Amino acid sequence: MTENRLDSLTSWHADWSGLRVAVLGLSVTGFSAADTLTELGAEVLVLSEDASEEYARLVPVIGARLDLGPLDPVPASLIDFDPDVVLASPGFAPAHPAIRWAQENEVALWGDVELAWRVRDKVTRADGTPADWVLITGTNGKTTTTQLTASLLAEGGLKAAPCGNIGVPVLDAVRDPAGFDVLVVELSSHQLWYIGQADIAGQIVPHASVCLNLADDHLIWHGSARAYRDAKAVVYRNTRVACVYNKSDAATMEMVEEADVVEGARAIGFDLGTPGPSDLGLVDGLVVDRAFLDDRRTKALELTTLDELRAAGLGAPHIVQNVLAASALARSLDVKPEAIHDALQTFRLDAHRIQVIAEHDGIRWVDDSKATNPHAAASSLRAHPGAVWVVGGDLKGVDLSELVANDGGSARAAIVIGVEREPVLDAFRRHAPHVPVFEVIAGDTGEVMDRVVELATEIVDGEGTVLLAPAAASFDQFRSYADRGERFAQAVRAWIERGSADDADGSPAAH
Question: How far apart are the first and last CA of the chain?
């Protein structure tokens, strides 16, 4: 297969017949890619270490071949297939033998997002053009900002689809017969790494883009902090209209300064301070836009107020930053300030994102199980000073020392969970020795959170906040961050019910 053939495959209506594509991985992303490619007429081999019964049954139905088994070392079936393209699910790290094999043999390496960009014209708008793309990444806040942006666009009269890392494959959104005006694409660093491998024909040209923040994460997958940062920076490449960046995070500003963008693209900053003439920010409790108006040197447009955001559960500082970023993206697509204001009145955060589970007997229980890295946990701690902090889990190679030193010292106490407890305990010994630390020994998942709640009520002793913000992944003890958060909530509800029962029969309430 010549490079010219791949260069020509930039439309759903191009001739894809006979293209040999090896799809690595058979989760929702892998199946979406295989389904798309077979519909296009390509010859598809799916290789995966395992698969759900449903996907394994459907692969031959859609016209693809399936090879289940180890991919390390590289299986003979992949080599014999002699693919023109290897399309990898984002879980495959650059160091994986199959990815190295593709690179060493100069086989084109795609991700599902690149394929979606190439076939984005399957369904077009009334004027015959495909949907605009808005790209969103960052160490934290991606999903919230993606949901916010889609909500703001919808209130502004645009058909918008949140997709990508948020759970809906971009290929599913591209192929949706309903069609969209805008695809709001959440991108992980893994997906961005694959986008970074794209040749010129496969490079995405987004309408607007944002990197919300940058902190060490996924270092094992990428191999280094620099590689992780470089992957995130890909989000700004080829942006046409607005490169939105976080003024309080120098790394995101540097990414914009270094980005190769379309001539005329503007850098739009946001933070919690007073905005400059090309920024969004705060003035006397007002959330304002000084970027998308003609007289931006002397005026600003009010979008909402901090009081209104607090009333909607959006008042935590890091959530306000998400609101500012989403508003900048929406304003770049001409959404009116009034529409942004109205959308923010009804928007609600997902479960497990600084979610107040209950306020009972003077104790406020907050579930931020989605705080799976130190950067996210730091935001939660700053929003809840003096909380009893539930921390720990699968650390993913990340050191919590800086988090404990900078923010952990403000905690009333710490309850350490997870299998990797010793590095967390050591961080407190070295950087916050004044904070009382309690350890929950690994055991049954239900028992873990029951013990957490029991300890927390003893520590609080009548009044305070208990904050689950683990700064770590959940897979050492739970199925997912959602499972971890739900088990925490279940344990809290059980404690409340026990207290109510004790009160009803006249015995002392449990604390």
Answer: 70
R_g of the chain computed on alpha carbons? 24
pTM of the model: 0.82
Contacts 24+ apart (CB under 8 A), 172-177: 172/32, 173/116, 174/116, 174/119, 174/120, 174/122, 174/123, 175/36, 175/122, 175/123, 176/123, 177/123
Domain co-membership, 142 together with 181: yes
Tell me, yes or no, whether 19 lies in a domain. Answer: yes
Instruction: Please report the pLDDT score of residue 3 as a whole number.
Output: 62
Q: Are residue 277 and residue 226 in the same domain, yes or no? A: yes
Q: Given its phi and psi angles, is residue 397 left (phi above 0), alpha (psi -120 to 50 degrees) or beta?
A: left
Element (H, E) at 86: strand 85-88
- CATH code: domain of residue 74: 3.40.50.720
Residue where one domain finishes, among candidates 346, 377, 392: 346
Tell whether 253 and 330 lie within a shared domain.
yes
pLDDT at 136: 98
Average pLDDT for the chain: 93
The confidence score (pLDDT) of residue 304 equals: 98
DSSP helix, strand, coil percent of the chain (3-state; round to 5): 40, 20, 40
Q: Residue 271: what pLDDT? A: 98
Length of the chain: 511
Q: Enumerate residue ranges in the chain where pLDDT < 70.
A: 1-3, 442-446, 500-511
Neighbour tally for 276: CB within 10 Å? 14
225-233 and 189-196 helices, crossing angle to 10°: 70
Take residue 285 and report the two structure tokens written for it.
């409790």
Quick one: pLDDT at residue 397? Answer: 83
Domain enclosing residue 11, as ranges: 3-110
pLDDT value of position 2: 55
As for how many domains the chain has, the answer is: 3
Phi, then psi, of 460 in degrees rounded to 5: -65, -40
Q: Which helix (H) or strand (E) holds 416?
A: strand 413-416
338 & 417 share domain: no
Are residues 267 and 363 part of one domain?
no
Shared domain check, 140 and 89: no
- Residue 511 covered by a domain: no
Q: Which residues contact 350 (CB under 8 A, 6 or more apart)?
A: 143, 144, 147, 370
CATH number, domain of 475, equals 3.90.190.20
How many angstroms separate the CA atoms of 30 and 33, rounded? 5
- Which residues have C-beta within 8 Å of that of residue 31, sequence separation ≥ 6? 55, 58, 59
89/25 same-domain check? yes
Dihedral of CA atoms 273, 274, 275, 276 in degrees, nearest 10, equals -120
Token output for 502: 């004790």
